[in-house]
Amino acid sequence: MTPFTRFLTFIRFSHTLFALPFALGAMAVAASSSGGWPGWRIFLLILLCMVLARTAAMTFNRVVDWEIDKRNPRTAARHTLLGKGAAIATCTASAVMFVVTAFLINRACFLLSPLALALVFFYSLTKRFTHAAQFFLGLALSASPVGAWIAVTGSLAWPPLVLAFGVLCWVAGFDMIYATQDVEADKREGLHSMVVRLGIPGALKLAGWLHLLMFVALIGFGLSAHLGMIYFLGLIPIPFLLFYEHHMAGSLDIKEINKAFFETNAVIGFLFVGIVVIDRCFH
Questions:
Q1: Contact at 8 Å (CB) between 261 and 177?
Q2: pLDDT for position 141
Q3: Angstrom distance (rounded) from CA 268 to CA 160
Q4: Which residues of the chain register pLDDT less than 70?
Q5: CA distance 14 to 54
Q6: What does pLDDT average to over the chain?
Q7: What domains are defined for the chain?
Q8: Residue 153, Cβ neighbours under 10 Å: how many?
Q9: Could you tell me where the DSSP H helices lie in the chain?
Q10: What angle do helix axes 237-249 and 194-224 make, rounded to 10 degrees?
Q11: How far apart are CA 85 and CA 172, in angstroms?
Q12: Can you list the pairs that 65-74 forms with residues at least 24 positions away whose Cβ atoms lie under 8 Å?
């Protein structure tokens, strides 16, 4: 494994795919009133902001959980991928570059960039004092469509807020599924989560309701953004994908949970941005 590959594994770079499609979907809708494309400059700056914010958030998470992760069998090897000093340096550099990139977009993004960083950093601390940690992760990722909308328009509107609610429910739900792997380790460490609070069956049931709300929010986003029939027809596979994810999670097989977690949610994200872009091209 090369040093670069080790770094990407350390920050779980592949999981960037979860929030990014919703940011790009919000960007496409926000730009649709002015030709349908915000320009390569804004597009690349939004993309860079997403990568930098997540890199800062993940390295911060790794640093604050350094000793906890060593004692969890699932995460015990994380600290061997990158030194703690390098992780702190990466977190600092990514956070500074995120603020600078936000400055290059517009004034509103620049002024809100410290709040965005505070939000994504705060999540890593929440499992120490609240069972609602999964909801804080959802809140952190829900900022992505809002930020992308502001990057294009310089202001806020209802569609990105509705979409943000959907992202919050989606992320909180699938993180509850993911957290079933760590329930025993979390109990030993005195950490909090909805899985610890409700037990695995209760947490999986709650995740199902959250994913139902997520689907309703996607419909609400389409209505508030005046999207067309292509978008609404494109939503049809999503409930089936979510059902498949929950079916796999119900097996409590770690390999199946990981497969459902990554593959299913990645497909949902790409499907969402695909139907938004196609709808805007033909609307």
A1: yes
A2: 94
A3: 18
A4: 1-17, 33-35, 80, 252-255, 260
A5: 11
A6: 89
A7: 12-282 (1.10.357.140)
A8: 18
A9: 3-10, 20-31, 40-64, 66-71, 84-105, 107-126, 133-153, 158-179, 183-189, 194-224, 229-234, 237-249, 254-259, 265-282
A10: 170
A11: 30
A12: 65/124, 68/189, 68/191, 71/185, 71/188, 71/189, 72/182, 72/185, 72/189, 73/185, 74/181, 74/182, 74/185
Contact (CB, 8 A) for 87 and 59: yes
CA distance linking residue 242 with residue 214, whole number of Å: 10
- The amino acid sitting at 11 is I
Angstrom distance (rounded) from CA 193 to CA 135: 9
Extract the tokens encoding 169. 């429910």
C-alpha atoms less than 13 angstroms from C-alpha of 110 in its C-beta half-sphere: 7
pLDDT at 68: 84
Distance, CA of 191 to CA of 116 (rounded, Å): 24
pTM for the whole thing?
0.92
Task: Name, in order, each residue with C-beta under 8 angstroms of 47's C-beta and a sequence gap of 6 or more.
Answer: 20
Q: What is the largest CA-CA distance in the chain?
A: 55
Would you state the structure tokens that stand for residue 247, as one six-digit string?
């079916």
Indicate left, alpha or beta for 228 from its phi (over 0: left) and psi (-120 to 50: alpha). beta
Token output for 246: 């929950």
Q: Percent of the chain, pLDDT > 90?
A: 65
pLDDT tens for 77-128 read: 777 677 889 889 999 999 999 999 999 999 999 999 999 999 999 999 999 9
Handedness of CA 249, 170, 180, 65 (dihedral sign): positive
